[in-house]
Amino acid sequence: MAMSTHLLATLSNPLVTVEQLSTSSSQLDSIPADLESSIQYNGALMTQAAGVLLRLPQEIVSQAIVTFNRFYVGPEGGSFRLHSVKDVSAASLYLTAKLSFLPQSPRSVLNVYAYLLSDKSSFLSPSADKADAKVDPESYYLSEGLYQSLRNILLSTESLILRSLSFTTHVSIPHHLALTYLQTLGALPSATTSTSTALARRTLAHLNTALLSPQLLYLTHQPPALAVAAIYLAAKEVGVKLVRTEWWEVFDVEREELGFLVVAMGSMVGWAEKEKQKWGERRCPLTTEEVEMELERSKI
């Protein structure tokens, strides 16, 4: 019985409350809700990009994004006017990797973020032509003095995240669970086919995309529900017919929750396109100084 309880605990996450979703520290600091969503989305994107450059497994990157979002949620959480997105993103990734089997050195993490924030990187200005541009190495090279300064910020932000989350660092993600569910449903046979491979890839793609959702799906729903919704949506897209019965109930997911998650995941592509059009050639603020500049600009 004790082992069963422990297993369930490792597959679940602490979820945010309605009160935490109704307002946030950033909104209390006069940051509009739409700007807050944009900053949070771009912060999650930055964490994903940094994880890819550090060659970390998606499991670690996903956990880091959830930790990043947890820090800013609720009136007691962090504010974008007080805590720079780039610092919290870097500290979340550094902390998550430290607790995994692939810890990263502070220098490696800071070098990656220095690159992502430089003019050489396509992360901030994907539409800009960097091929023929003359790049200043100082824009992405960290001197020893600057490195020591950023290292102190990284470690202090890591401590701040731990205190803010009451040292609750456990994050369960639904990726492996989704593949297990696909096997249970008979949609992922031992002898893989092109269809089963496409189904698995689309399922994992939806789970990765959901990490960026402005609705904070990983903070409001447990991993089994996220896995079931991703499978349902992927099966519709690939054209795979699953069992005719209400199979999601076997995994303890209700129809109403499934419907909400399917719509939320399915709308992410359109929402991301609107975000891209919204900012155009401008960059979304990723530091406290840039947030202040954006708030001043919006007043004009």
Q: Describe it for me?
A:
This protein has 300 residues and is mainly α. It is 61% helix and 0% strand. α4 packs across α7 (106-116). The longest helix has 21 residues, at 33-53.
Number of strands: 0
Note the beta-strand portion: under 5%
Q: What's the helical proportion of residues?
A: 55-70%
- Outline the low-pLDDT stretches: 1-6
The largest pleated sheet is described as: none
Element string (H = helix, E = strand):
HHHHHHHHHHHHHHH
- How widely separated are the two ends? 62 Å
Please state the CA-atom Rg, rounded to the nearest Å: 20 Å
Q: What structural category do the secondary elements indicate?
A: mainly alpha
Give the overall pLDDT as a whole number. 89
The best one-word shape is globular
Treating each run of at least 4 consecutive H or I residues as one helix, how many helices?
15
